[in-house]
Predict the 3D structure of the following.
Amino acid sequence: MTDSLLTLDNLTKAYPGVVANDKVSLSIGPGEIHSLLGENGAGKSTLVKMIYGLVKPDSGRMTLHGAPYAPAEPKAARASGVAMVFQHFSLFEALDVAENIALGMEKPPPRRDLSEQIRTVSHAYGLPLDPGRRVGELSAGERQRVEIVRCLLQNPRLLIMDEPTSVLTPQEVDILFTTLRKLSAEGTAILYISHKLDEIRSLCDSATVLRLGKVVGSCIPAQSTAREMAEMMIGTSLKTPTRPAGEPGEVLLNITALDLPSTSQFGTSLRGVDLQVRAGQVVGIGGVAGNGQEELLSVISGEACVPTGHITFKGQDIGGLGPNQRRALGILSAPEERLGHAAAPDMSLVENALLTGTLRKGLSRNGFLDWTATRAFAADIIDTFDVRTPNADVAARALSGGNLQKFVIGREVLQAPTCLVVNQPTWGVDASAAAAIRQALLDLAQQGAAVVVISQDLDELLEISDLFAALNGGRLSAPRPAYGLTLDEIGLMMGGAHDMEVAHV
Amino acid sequence: MMLNISLELLLASLMVAATPILLAALGELVTEKSGVLNLGVEGMMIIGAICGFAVAVETGSTILGFIAAALGGAVLSLIFAVLTQVLMSNQVATGLALTLFGLGFSALIGQSYAGLKPPPVPELDFGPLSNLPFVGPVLFQHDAMVYVSIALVAAIWAVLRFSRVGLILRAVGENHDAAHALGYKVVRIRILAILFGGACAGLGGAYLSLVRVPQWTEGMTAGAGWIALALVVFGAWKPWRVLLGAYLFGGITVLQLNLQAAGLAVPVEILSMSPYVITILVLVVMSADRRASLNAPATLGRVFHASN
Amino acid sequence: MIRLERRPSPSRMWTALTPVMAVLATMIAGGIMFAALGKDPVEAIRTIFWDPLFNEQFAAYSRPQLLVKAGPLILIAIGLSLGFRAGVWNIGAEGQYIIGAICGAAVGLALYPLDSPIVFPLMVLAGALGGWAWAMIPAILKTRFNTNEILVSLLLVYVAEQLLASMALGLLRNPEGGGFPGSRNLQQYDAAANLELFAGTGVHWGVVTAFIAVIFAYVLLSRHLLGFQIRVAGSAPRAARFAGVNPAALVVICLGISGALAGLAGMFEVAGPAGQITIDFNSNYGFTAIIVAFLGRLNPIGILLAGILMALTYIGGELAQFMLGVPAAAIQAFQGMLLFFLLAVDVLSNFRLRLGKPEAA
């Protein structure tokens, strides 16, 4: 193939116990927007890490511009014209935009020239940036711009983008797509990783589908239906959660005019949040990551205390109560960060069951621990939520992300909460397990619990929520019935394009 | 009672008193900027003190003495570097081990050097400047190391602020995962920063044994390394503020010594403990100020393991 | 090329085995050091590790000494280990030890020559309170102003040493001592003396307390909610807060316990083996206990064994000093080495060594 920019030929990479990539082949032409499609854990990340020189393949060959290509490190990849925008940004919060960009370049020009280049390039592609601003002060969308501009300044021939839209509002996604199309028209190839089928259909020229490390098919997205691609990606048909209609009951959780100053340097302050959750109701809270989601959860869980008069539960003021006092009342939560927040990474699953279950499961008597009962509780979670683990004594960090997520959600659900708040409940979980988790949340609501689901997955929220609200810069929009909301309306609730100018390309 | 303390002498000896902790603190600042907390400063200083002293006595050259001190400090810090960066041991525990080992090992080397006098360290010749009234003795009648330490402040400031090396160092200390993802050698950069810190601490120690005291006694650093660590916090990881802190501290030390000599009606022990108490008070004031502590490198003390 | 691969769970076997490997490696490295000093390495190692226990000439004196030295080390290390597990770094135990001794001795000296069974318990209480109060300084500064407890607790050691000097020369000086520094000898004041309880064993009240502390810590860590909270706080601070642990309370509790235990150790020492407050009363137990705590893997039973081992190096070291002329400083360096080797081999319990080509970058 003479017209191919990058060709992968039978790339294989195995880790202990798992083959991440099994003889993966694909080819990308100049200017082509090629989609790499697959579930979490399908091997997309490993594949692009090999292209970017972060991981070495066990076997197989890569060809770039007709010549053999085997980058030993990212530096070599960048020198060959391959650039990458990471899903979790590789940015330095305490440094400014220009410094961040300089770090991603081999031979950055002097500071003044660089700042000028940043301004020029970022405007040319409709992604305006101020080189002197600290990255920690930027929104997620702006941070992504930093990453993209960092890549663009090196005139890449191939740009790899790993799940770029997961942190963007719908309007920001439009800006990004315009930029990507412009790049493609100028001859830059783009390898676009995603599992969002609609995006791929509107943006990409071709697609390769991965499942469990293998290529299971390829297609031209514009000519395929989302359903066809989904079936290729998942391999089975999906069970969608059922949603029995029920009348919402009394107000359980009532938050009024709540302010919470940020505790960390680059955190978000909550401002004037109002939220009512009734028994039997699921309230979905959307919004781009970093707009106050963690803070909102901490206010409900009791990790952050607030003055009286802003948060009540069944009419009782709980602003000053700590996490365990709230657990006693039936308010449980599952934070987003599984390792280190929802679970202690180096402790066993039994100990992690004890972590939040002490009170409601009666696992201690006069301060002395009942390990037998704790073991039984851990076993119950593992059983009920199909947590795949050799036994309950392995450390939490030994579990895959999805399995640990099931454990964490299961631990809270099995304590029969009256009010449950979860952040990103299905992040990193495979499709069938995600469906099971959503069903468990719906079942809880049906039994009369108040459920708050914070998520960045809009499809998920629209699927299970009665009411939908969005967080933007620490403010919560007024909740609206989820049924019948359009994507445009949701985008506006999420804060449009964060008041940034729209691309003029 | 009139206290007969000359301001001129006080200020002149202030710079000498401040130089050891300034040198050590500068080294630790660079180490911490790379994200590594090395609590072994005290150990590296005292190893520097004995290495510098021994070599200076044996060769008669103070320059060789200082070089040996820097090497000695760096070699000791290499143990820390290997343990924490390659074998991923706990930085707090390893730093403590370094201090305990350094104190013991220096006493071992130093047995035959107690009571000796090191060769004198000449003052730098500033010509007529040194003869200026007041300013001359205060600023221009010191040995070269005093000026080296000030130059080092300027150099570290400039490198951190303007150079690419400095940018990479800060980046590694700020977010080692991101730096790794961009292809920077986190471990290698940190090891170099640790070695630099060790060499500086060694120099600081040698300044104690060759200039400030000047002789060798066991445990002669007497907490100077810990005070250097506190200075980094006090300076909010900024070189010029570390300099300021070191000179303030030097001033307090000299003042209390002068007060002791002048026979002030305060028990000697109270005066002797004052530098430590004041360091604690300063630490409290600094840490209560949230803006200053936010300046700390984000990955300070955290273990880095490149997982693919 | 060797590379490290993280184990899914820490290896139990290696956790138990690594201290033994560290001791062996230290013996080898120490042997090299002794050889460099011109001593016969085998004889030096034997003098340190074997003779105090099994050489008939010395054992009668050395064996009881083992517990006398191990007692304070274990007592202090147990307290420190609780803090270290919770991520609270009290490294100023030496200072708390000194203050405990001063307070304990002060009470005893104040009551002299009252002959009442209440004297000794009062001294114990004063010693514990003194150490506790001294540890509360870093604790309160930490919780109130977020001041680094490592630096504060350590700097307070130097302050405590000055206080000790001031006490030995002033307030607590023996009025009948002919102007020499140092207090009355408490061993000669029956109501206050901490004497050997069983002849020839070296067991005094401090040793008994140390054993009780081991059992207490063991139960606390394995069976009690507070112990669980301590472990969570050290291993995952955010998860601990999520689980309802109050980090400030934990700082106060951990520093308080370790301070009180160090104070007790100081008090038992001054009323027993040392006998009196002198300028150089403290003998680095507070720092050596840090090594003991790590050598014992922050585990109570481990600390018990490590304390005895470390006491052996003290006694053996003295013996080697006396018999072979090995300098005292060599023993200190030897102990530091032990901690190095322990930290170095520690990697084996959390990582697996893999032979093979390293990953890119």
Summary: Confidence is low (pLDDT under 50) at residues 496-505 of chain A. The domain at 251-493 of chain A is CATH 3.40.50.300 (Rossmann fold). The radius of gyration of chain A is 24 Å. Chain A touches chain B at residues 15, 49, 53-55, 73-75, 78, 86, 89-95, 99, 102-104, 108, 265 (CB under 8 Å).
